[in-house]
Write a structure and sequence with these properties.
309 residues, alpha/beta, two-stranded parallel ribbon, 33% helix, globular
């Protein structure tokens, strides 16, 4: 299949043209405006999560799709606490030194999945570089707990890189999640500025090894646009994903969570996201979910082939 060209959004060697940039201090364009979540269902689910002392990325990362996803039976639980050992410059999650390990958390997550009647549960975590296995054991136990309580619920795990500990990855893959997700987040050139504690090649290795460990699982990753990447760099990233057997890509607009975080270099219009989706599928990805408000778990349940789970 011939590739669908992306719009010309950069030279391939540097950031977007100055005329295309829109600093974060400017008002967001209309396509990035969303309604504040509200209503009785929203309030009931929030109360349930507080009661169970659980965290969701939906709230911690200020996801614009939280009400829609919860209404469609999908939620993303953040295990291993709410303090991250890394300081990525795009992320709103608190950085610091985590204390202890909550061994009862997997059962509370399973309890919430059951009470929320979720058809697809996404389990992610902060980075826990302080733990010997990076938290892989708690990931595995959470998958087992959800499967015991909710056998019809499909499970996706969005994992950290475990600092390249492939034995830790194997612990998670042994539980055979329907989707193994690990976000590369951005193009290699921007790693030092965007996620200094990570390594692009290490993330690619993780995705490839996950597929080798469980060929039947779907592998998935996500990128943020608007940080200064170019069309050529994005093309090269997609080629890397295809070479490393990645099935699914999500692409969304980076939004600066606080003034202390990286500024938005450019608000990418919807038609360019559509071109990214076409390009990714033409280059060999199984599924691409791309749009200004797309986040890692957006429409996640629809990415699993019918009959799975």
């Amino acid at each position: 299949m011939s590739a669908v060209p992306l719009p010309v959004i950069g030279s391939g060697a540097g950031p977007f043209p100055e005329t295309a940039r829109r600093p974060a201090r400017h008002p967001r364009p209309d396509w990035l405006r969303v309604r504040v979540p509200s209503g009785p269902a929203w309030g009931r689910l929030r109360s349930l999560l507080r009661e169970k002392n659980l965290h969701t990325v939906c709230e911690e990362a200020r996801c614009p799709n939280v009400a829609e996803c919860w209404g469609q039976g999908t939620a993303t639980f953040m295990i291993l606490g709410d303090i991250c050992t890394r300081a990525c410059r795009f992320c709103a999650v608190t950085t610091g030194r985590p204390v202890g390990l909550d061994l009862e958390e997997p059962e509370r997550v399973a309890d919430a999945v059951e009470l929320m009647d979720l058809r697809h549960a996404v389990i992610t975590s902060v980075n826990r570089d302080d733990l010997a296995d990076g938290g892989a054991g708690i990931f595995a136990e959470t998958i087992r707990a959800v499967r015991r309580r909710c056998p019809d619920t499909t499970v996706e795990v969005l994992i950290p890189d475990f600092q390249g500990d492939w034995a830790a990855l194997a612990i998670v893959m042994e539980e055979d999640p329907e989707i193994l997700n690990h976000n590369v987040e951005t193009v290699p050139r921007l790693y030092k500025a965007v996620r200094p504690g990570a390594r692009y090649r290490r993330s690619l290795d993780l995705l490839r090894r996950a597929k080798e460990l469980r060929p039947g699982a779907l592998t998935k990753t996500g990128v943020m646009l608007g940080l200064g990447e170019t069309a050529g760099e994005l093309d090269a990233l997609i080629e890397d994903l295809v070479r490393n057997s990645v099935d699914i890509l999500t692409a969304g607009q980076y939004l600066q969570p606080t003034p202390a975080h990286l500024p938005v270099e450019r608000f990418v219009p919807p038609d360019e996201f559509r071109a990214v989706a076409e390009r990714g599928k033409a280059m060999g990805l199984r599924h691409v979910e791309a749009g200004p408000l797309v986040r890692s778990s957006y429409h996640a349940a629809n990415q699993i082939p019918e009959g799975s789970g």
